[in-house]
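Entry for 1,5-anhydro-D-fructose complex. Fields follow.
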Amino acid sequence: MEYFTIFQFQNKCMQVVHMSAECYPVAKVGGLGDVVGALPKYFNQTEGNDAIVVMPWVENKFTQTHRFVVDHQAVLPFGRRILQVKILRNHDLGYKLYMVQVEGFENRTQVYGYRNDAYHFIAFQVATLNWIHQWEHLPDVIHCHDFHTGFVPFYMSHSHQFPRLRNVPSIFTIHNGNYQGMMSWDVVDYFPWFDTWKLPLLKWNNTLNAMATAVKCAWRVTTVSPQYMKELMQDSSLSELFHQESQKCVGILNGIDNEEWNPETDKHLRHHYSVDTVSEGKRANKEEVCGHFHFDPELPLVSFIGRFAHQKGVDVLSDAVWRAINTYDAEMNFLIVGSGDPQLARGLEQMKRYSRGKFNCYIGYNEELARKVYAASDFLVMPSRFEPCGLNQFYALRYGTLPIVRTVGGLLDSIIDMNDENGCGIRFIQMNSNDILHALYRASELYLDKEKFATMRQHAMNQDFSWEKSIKQYTQLYKNAMP
Ligand code: NHF
């Protein structure tokens, strides 16, 4: 009998609630959206599992063109006001999506960037827990993502408003430890009732810090790669805290949605290809993209795709590209696609004029172009200062493009250097243009060795960074956390 019970428990299906500010394809700003969009989809492939996503309402193309039904209506006492709350449900994604509409915040067209973001995210967190607290069957796990949901583990364990949630495990995943949600103390007036002697749980370095609160209060804390967890412990403003809480911390590498990212079926590509047709397929895509950007398709094409944020290192990359072209007369083409820091964007636009046709850029977010560039490029460079996981290196491998990465975070965990027999990328260590230049030099040598280059390409496409592996780890984590 006892054996039977244990067996039953091991195979128990789970209900998991993901709380996040972003979820692809509903509203995405960065990798957080991709991951939250994919996790429930793959988790639910195990029969009986039921992962759902709860996120704040955004007024955008997705919400305007998909059908939502009102699932729940409530009022939310918020400071001195009473706000109306609606929770809307949609089924189009293969899992249940719930969007929380709070009076006064319901007309937002963007996920972030408003003066009162902090209040919005607090209202979202409290309204969601108020709702879940009324469920007849509580979920097995509440999984929170990044600082926008960082107070949830505190509310669940310490607010008198949620006694039924005390025994529900809370998991907190850090997708980017640099955004910690430090805010002014007056937001605490909007918190659900808790004992004020618990205030120390909310602070780090005398500041109210949503991420630090989550690290203290969540039952388990994860980051999106094992190496990034080490880096947070060794060298971050929260190092001491991570050391204190190390028992419950673990790094789980992200995966990618192999259905969504597939050069054989990608609806954005005109020339599809598989591992068997990679040479011809990439050549056709390269000709198309090179034609558009006035590049010579005979030369290796090295691209960067991403945000122009300090983290991503585009400033140092542009210095290296400038020197490669103008000092070393490198026989390579460089393409940068992305947006962000306007000063950097202006600098790149100017650089075009002095690059003798070997450098070009596209400033803006363009999914279709990004996909074409993955398919067309020979190399994708990622000179990140830090990288919690990084997803672009996975997309690149999937499209037969060899990643050139700095050895940090998830890049270190996922890309093996070409010197190793299993290698399918190029690694460099220091964050300076000399190291990037050396990596570019190695890339150009490799490009000339046609046979080795072709083998590495195929090897890259055969790598498996699908979600299945990571889902197993998350499932185990949830099981271990359950009381
Ligand atoms: O992969 C999703 C993504 C990470 O490194 C990425 C980042 C933001 O910086 O987990 O979140």
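NOTE: DSSP finds 17 helices and 18 strands in the chain.
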